[in-house]
Amino acid sequence: MAMTAVARETVFALRRQIAKIEGTLPERLQAPAAANLDADFGADAAAKTRAPAMDLTLVRRGIAVASPDAFLSTGVERLDAALGGGLPKAALSEIHGTQTRDAGAVAGFALSLTSLILKQAQGLPVLWIGTSEIFREAGFPYARGLHASFGIEPEQLLFSEAPRLVDALWVAEEAARMTALAAVILEIRGNPQRLDLTATRRLHARTQGAGRPVFLLRQAAGPEPTAAPVRLIVASAPAVPRATIAGPLAGSIGRPAFTVTIGKSRTALPGQFTLEWNPDERAFDERWGDERRAEARRKERAADPVPVASLSGGGKDPAAASGAVLAFPAVGSPVAISPTARDQPPPGQRAAHLGPRRAG
């Protein structure tokens, strides 16, 4: 009987350690004591007033309670809702590209997320780690385009080029525990044996301790077990023409677009989204199909039923409708004056009478 109790305690200790590594600590499995959760159990009014209400985000699949600050919102309502609030900030997140040619889209998507992070952690640098093979194959981000497209100053993006994968993993583990960095980006190619479940668990644990995100970019990689709570599969999407007041501009190239698929998530169901990055507002927009776009327009018209008249081609406001027009003869033309025009002043006195005029 005593051996059974010891074995049970050992199993519980192992489960606790696994939960700590994976980011689902037992303390997080219960609601905070300050939360007002007595309402569902019929507590009296006095007990309710003792516990102030808190804004909580309940993870969909029912194991954790986290504050809204624990997630990085993408700004796309449907994607954030599917992810249970957004990407976890203090966690390892995987961003996959199934083919080598998707390396640019994966890097652009990671820079877009970094831009969202820097809005909250202004002034902190970002460390991008990779092997010599990675940077030789995919290149480095263009420094001049960092600020224009993502609002990132070139001096804010630091690079660490490691000769071997083991060195890149060591740098990433050391950087993941630093609070002086806004985020850490680790770029790996393929499915190397050294990047196994144990290595990703170490990365994830150090990320949780520092409270900073680590993005694991994987070129031409297949899905495999890792400790990352979220895996997104990113590919480039065709750009649509630029939108103008007169409609789409033929022959133009619009905003960069990504096809984002939720490959794995502990809090979400699988789904696919097409996102556009707005470099002016530094935010994501979801590209809608024709049916959803028409539905959105119907909702806008229902919310604001006042008709809006478009500007004329010359750029001026449309003129009001004309009334009756009285014609006046040119100077020097012998025309008989009708009785209705006798009260009008002579043409030479007012130049405005040389042309037509609206009446009424």
| CA(first)-CA(last) distance | 106 Å
Helix segment tally = 9
Average of pLDDT: 76
Helix content: 25-40%
Radius of gyration: 32 Å
Uncertain parts: 24-64
Q: Specify the overall morphology.
A: globular
Indicate the proportion of strand residues: 15-25%
Order of helices and strands: HHEEEHEEHEHHEHEHEEEEEEEHEE
Please give the order of strands in the largest beta sheet: 7-6-8-9-5-10-13-14-15
Largest sheet: 9 strands, mixed
* Secondary-structure content class: alpha/beta
Query: Could you tell me the number of beta strands?
Result: 17
Q: In a few lines, what is going on in this structure?
A:
This protein is of the alpha/beta class. The protein has 9 helices and 17 strands.
Describe the structure.
This protein is an alpha/beta fold. The protein has nine helices and 17 strands. The strands form five sheets. Strands 7-6-8-9-5-10-13-14-15 form a nine-stranded mixed β-sheet, sandwiched between helices. Strands 1-2 form a two-stranded antiparallel ribbon. The protein has a two-stranded antiparallel sheet with strand order 3-4. Helix 7 packs parallel to helix 8 (197-210). The longest helix has 21 residues, at 2-22. The termini are far apart.
